Amino acid sequence: MQGSLTVPGPQKVSEFVAAGQASPATGSAERSAVPDYVLLFSNSEVSRKQAMRLLGISYGELLERLSGRELPLPRVSDEEADEMADLIVALSDRHAH
Q: DSSP class of residue 21?
């Protein structure tokens, strides 16, 4: 048997097909033309806000989908990390005085 059909559990069929898995209706393992926004978010190819808007879900739901597929959070760029660190230092300086 070349490819086995996996039937989706409680997740939506659209998520199942968007993940590039076999379509439950056809058994076809062909990749769907629908982008996998959860994977794109994990790979830092779309922003959190873009993924949430495109999927029509909250940030909590996006995190649940990442976790459910055992995908990592996107990596923060060095520039973003530096900006966050600067903000934290500025806020802590403000509260210290």
A: P
